[in-house]
Design a protein that fits this description.
Length: 410
Amino acid sequence: MTDFHAELTDRLIRYAAIDSQSDEDAPAQPSTAIQLDILRLLQKELRDIGASDVQLTDYGVVLATIPGTAPGPTVGLLAHVDTAPQFNATSVKPRLIKGYNGGDISFPDNPNLTLSPAQFPYLASKQGHDIITASGLTLLGADDKAGVAIIMTAARHLLENPQIAHPPLRIAFTPDEEIGRGVDARLPADLAADFAYTFDGGAVGEIEYESFSADGANVKITGVSIHPGQAKGKLVNALHLAAKIINSLPANQTPENTQDREGFIHLTDLNGSAAECSLRFILRDFERDGLAAKGDLLRQTCAAIAATEPTATIEVTIKPQYRNMRYWLENDMTPVDLARDAAATLGIAPVSVPIRGGTDGSRLTEMGVPTPNLFTGMQNIHGPLEWVSVQDMEQATHLALTLAQKAVTS
């Protein structure tokens, strides 16, 4: 079996060091110009390895073709280049821990931070692996630059080995996945794939075809502003109303108190002043009815608080983000079965659990391109404890190559 270890290590360390954080408040496409730095690099690298039809679209997606060497469906391989806005992603300093000894991992730039196998059992299973983390002050960005490295490595290998039988492959590197804007309406037609895979999953063996359904909610509160020295009976503090809304929502429906198939209402941002403020929520549930109920609960809570202060206004806006990919994939499990077959060929036990999140595949599937999600090895994403095993990434690369070969039709 081909050794991709050094290439994957080099690619992830190089890619992770490039700042590419997305910004939900920015209207541009991509939302941040810095994402174009890595997108243009990938465009060049795809051309350098001999990919065809390489382009950077005006909506910020790098597309390319690995020409087929045998008949079969056109298969898409996708990963996103942006890193999550939830934590610092500027000046990422990736570091390689060779031959992990099984103990606690410390961080050179944050002595108070520890990555412990006692707290994270998956890490305990990786003794002897080469582990990549950041330095303690930033996230790593293996979400999803591990996926980018895996796809680039697989593409390079196929282009250098035309004797390997595989159908046409379409590659797409997307921006803004972390803010739910990675799939432009033009992407399905431009991708031109019969089905696709996102490499945006975690533990080895994960082949996911069920995700959250998701809405985003914004609550705008306009209070009554007046000089505090003359405020008796007149001032209505928007921040106090925000606190009442937060405290009135059920505590058992927050992310930290839910698991498995339970959805949640998650307050992500609170901004503003006593005069006016806004709260941003994400609403998640695996079923449409459950998601709608969470939106109704938020509206009802805000209406009840607004009724206590008729001189203030509270406006609730809820917008759809993506829907559970299961609704479409369960009607045709071909790409899921193909991935499971490829995993079994490699001796990897496939695991299909609901994603407590979403991927570009959620939107693509809804838009007509069935796109389950495959593992990369990344762990503890969106924070300073993020890490990935290079050996896990190597298994994901072999999975990509094996499923491409199994997609050949006789």
